[in-house]
Design brief:
Layout: H1 13-68, E1 72-74, E2 82-93, E3 100-115, E4 118-121, E5 124-125, E6 131-133, E7 138-149, E8 152-168, E9 183-190
Antiparallel strand pairs: 1-2, 1-8, 2-3, 3-4, 4-5, 6-8, 7-8, 8-9
């Protein structure tokens, strides 16, 4: 019994090479999508950590302000990267009249600043070493009620605006796979 070459089952070399080539293209595409997804997940994780660290630093700052209970901002000691809050008044209820009376006292001060890429209170950094504040981060004040006291120029009531351009020090290189673009957090509060 003779067998012919046409009756044999199997794949030719050309068919095998075509199947391997198509498989490699599919595997390469799947790998690229998978790797891109992993990198995006890591970048999102880094951004969330930075937001949490920035929120923590702002919360610490707000707690220090609540502890001080400032009566105003010293405009002569403040600029767009530094605000000096002062406490120089004390209020009490006058027992004879029932009205609230106020008198001046030797006050305390609290300076909030952006120094060396970090948020600082009285010169001490309160943001983590990983968090970096870019050069366009600012602290600004819209004063509603100004007062002159001695040689000082004070703002007794106003709105503070903090604009923090946040970046990760560990992934600041734009050529890095895990580069996180700086993002801006903005908060306002009145006093």
């Amino acid at each position: 019994m003779k067998r012919s070459a046409k009756a044999q089952a199997g794949m030719t070399l050309v068919e095998l090479l075509a199947a391997v080539s198509i498989s490699l293209l599919i595997i390469g595409a799947i790998y690229t999508v998978f790797l891109t997804g992993i990198r995006a997940y890591q970048r999102i994780g880094i951004e969330n950590e930075l937001r949490s660290e920035a929120d923590y630093a702002v919360a610490m700052m707000m707690n220090k302000l609540y502890e001080l209970a400032p009566d105003g901002v010293d405009l002569s000691a403040s600029n767009e990267r530094k605000l000096t809050f002062i406490e120089d008044r004390q209020q009490w209820i006058d027992a004879s009249s029932g009205f609230v009376a106020e008198h001046e006292k030797d006050g305390a001060a609290l300076t909030i600043s952006i120094e060396n890429g970090a948020l600082a209170i009285n010169g001490e950094a309160i943001s983590s070493s990983r968090l970096s504040l870019a050069a366009d981060s600012t602290l600004s004040l819209r004063c509603l009620r100004e007062e002159k006291k001695g040689g000082a120029h004070l703002c007794r009531s106003g709105v503070v605006t903090m604009k923090l351009a946040v970046q990760d020090r560990n992934h600041a290189d734009s050529d890095s796979w895990l580069y996180v673009q700086p993002f801006t957090l903005k908060t306002e509060f009145g006093f």
